[in-house]
């Protein structure tokens, strides 16, 4: 196919995430940002054990994995990797592959946050957790990639997933194709679009902390940050001292309680700007 397109000498834009070896301009998701996004999702929830599950050697798998591993390393942690070479075409191969995956999950330190490089892998990983008796998300929290809603909600535990900005990728690709059709030059670098964020479902909706009071405080802040609460409200609701909350959050997140509340509000505003048609003034009132 690539050779046929080259021979045709027509303007071409590549959208395949595997990035075949050729000279076509590419438009796609920024997989480096994606890996970092998932790592920070787990770090913000207090996880100290991390792992990544990939399949195949495509460039996008490598980018997602490497930047996940790099981000947790920057915080002083290592990430376990699972990169099987077995095949799954036949039922017997599927069962053997799932058994090996379940064995890997069983021996991981817990609690642990695991990035599955696609939702399909996340689906398989959740099944492996069920097979080996690992509790999701208390022992194993999982985040997939692509936010395939039907697949995520059909999993044994609804799967959290990174939502890619497919609409923006399509628009950028169309703009580039029009540019090329008008005789414009190809860009020297790939055009990369940032992911929209993580859609949090049950598979990662947890705070992994040994301190139950601090964990409850974080959960309370995440649930009510946009309802006008302040630090005194958190202290009253959770019955934790201000010094313990301040010390715990600074150690865990490197932020004060007030800074964390502001961050949560900004994240919610960003989410509403991305996923709704509300104006900035309306969002500010909320």
Description:
The chain is of the alpha/beta class. It has 2 domains: 29-165 and 196-204, Rossmann fold; 212-285, Homeodomain-like (Arc Repressor Mutant, subunit A, Orthogonal Bundle). The protein has 12 helices and 8 strands. The protein has helices spanning 2-8, 31-43, 59-74, 91-107, 119-132, 149-154, 166-181, 212-224, 231-238, 242-253, 257-275, 280-285, and strands at residues 27-29, 50-53, 79-82, 112-116, 140-145, 160-163, 191-193, 197-199. Strand 5 (140-145), helix 6 (149-154) and strand 6 (160-163) form a beta-alpha-beta unit. Helix 2 (31-43) packs parallel to helix 3, helix 4 packs across helix 5 and helix 8 packs across helix 9 (231-238). The termini are far apart. 34% of the residues are buried. The model has no long low-confidence stretch (mean pLDDT 86).
Assign the CATH topology of the largest domain: Rossmann fold
Number of domains: 2
Task: Please state the CA-atom Rg, rounded to the nearest Å.
Answer: 21 Å
Helix content: 40-55%
Feature tags:
alpha/beta; 286 residues; 6-stranded mixed sheet; Rossmann fold; 2 domains; single chain; Arc Repressor Mutant, subunit A
Draw up the topology in text.
Blueprint: H1 2-8, E1 27-29, H2 31-43, E2 50-53, H3 59-74, E3 79-82, H4 91-107, E4 112-116, H5 119-132, E5 140-145, H6 149-154, E6 160-163, H7 166-181, E7 191-193, E8 197-199, H8 212-224, H9 231-238, H10 242-253, H11 257-275, H12 280-285
Parallel strand pairs: 1-7, 2-3, 2-4, 4-5, 5-6
Antiparallel strand pairs: 6-8
Helix pairs in contact: 2-3, 4-5, 8-9
């Amino acid at each position: 196919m690539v050779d046929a397109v080259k021979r045709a000498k027509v303007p071409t834009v590549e959208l395949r995430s595997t990035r075949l070896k050729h000279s076509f301009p590419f438009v796609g998701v920024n997989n480096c940002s994606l890996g970092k996004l998932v790592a920070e999702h787990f770090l913000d929830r207090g996880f100290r054990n991390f792992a990544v599950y990939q399949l195949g050697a495509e460039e996008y798998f490598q980018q997602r994995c490497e930047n996940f591993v790099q981000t947790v390393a920057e915080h002083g942690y290592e990430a376990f990797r699972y990169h099987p070479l077995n095949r799954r075409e036949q039922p017997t191969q599927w069962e053997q592959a799932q058994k090996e995956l379940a064995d890997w999950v069983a021996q991981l330190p817990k609690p642990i946050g695991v990035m599955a490089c696609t939702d399909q892998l996340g689906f398989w990983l959740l099944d492996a957790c069920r097979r080996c008796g690992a509790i999701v998300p208390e022992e194993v929290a999982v985040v997939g990639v692509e936010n395939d809603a039907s697949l995520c909600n059909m999993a044994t535990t609804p799967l959290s997933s990174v939502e890619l900005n497919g609409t923006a990728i399509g628009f950028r690709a169309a703009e580039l194709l029009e540019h090329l059709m008008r005789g414009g030059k190809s860009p020297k670098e790939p055009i990369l679009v940032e992911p929209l964020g993580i859609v949090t479902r049950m598979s990662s909706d947890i705070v992994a902390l040994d301190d139950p009071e601090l964990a409850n405080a974080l959960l309370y802040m995440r649930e009510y940050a946009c309802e006008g609460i302040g630090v005194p409200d958190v202290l009253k609701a959770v019955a934790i001292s201000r010094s313990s909350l301040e010390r715990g959050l600074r150690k865990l997140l490197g932020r004060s309680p007030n800074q964390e509340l502001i961050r949560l509000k900004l994240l919610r505003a960003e989410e509403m700007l991305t996923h709704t048609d509300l104006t900035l003034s309306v969002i500010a009132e909320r």
